[in-house]
Write a structure and sequence with these properties.
mainly alpha; 201 residues; globular
């Protein structure tokens, strides 16, 4: 593989994965989750989210199909399950304005729901698996690292965005985005069901 071809493949893998992970679209949700936390707690949240998100993507990229085969689970079933989980999160944000629970630690919030399923959902996992099939192992792994570094930078400056929008603005945007998340969740579920129906026929 030439340097130019490698660069083109890496750019494609990074762009597609970044679009699917969509950290910019989730910013209002991140702010809602972390609005009552201290600076130290927020750093724990986004450090945990990026580390766990990176590990999940890499693990599923290299062993996802084998894991699904062992448990007899298809990608479509995973898509439906992820869609249901996203839908629950979206409904909680719509109703209460936040997913934050008083007894939740920064690490637990960083893991769920920020790392999974907001950042690393069915779409991101499926995209990473497809990248591995389309390109080589190094391109796939490097694309995950690059995207997660970008996510870390975005999370690092969430406070600045929060100050710009204000509490009311962030809550309004969080609810609007949660509607989009709910729609995305329903689409995941419909895609999974559609594939099951095709297989059944």
């Amino acid at each position: 593989m030439s340097a130019v071809e490698f660069g083109v493949n890496l750019a494609k893998a990074v762009i597609v994965l970044f679009i699917i992970v969509d950290p910019l679209g989730d910013i209002p949700i991140f702010m809602s989750l972390m609005e009552s936390m201290t600076g130290v707690q927020k750093r724990k949240v986004f450090n945990t989210a990026v580390i766990i998100g990176s590990i999940l993507l890499l693990v599923f990229a290299f062993t996802g199909q084998e894991i699904f085969a062992i448990f007899g689970v298809s990608l479509y079933a995973f898509e439906v399950a992820g869609g249901i989980l996203l839908l629950i999160i979206a409904m909680r944000i719509l109703i209460s304005g936040s997913m934050h629970e008083e007894n939740s630690s920064p690490e637990s919030i960083g893991a769920v729901p920020i790392a999974m399923p907001l950042l690393v959902g069915p779409g991101a996992i499926t995209t990473t698996i497809f990248n591995l099939q389309a390109y080589d192992v190094f391109v796939t792994a490097l694309s995950v690292v690059i995207v997660m570094v970008i996510v870390w930078v975005i999370l690092r400056y969430v406070d600045s965005i929060y100050r710009f929008l204000g509490k009311t603005g962030s809550l309004v945007i969080a609810r609007v985005v949660s509607l989009l998340i709910a729609a995305l969740a329903v689409q995941y579920i419909l895609n999974g069901v559609e594939q099951f129906v095709k297989i059944a026929h």
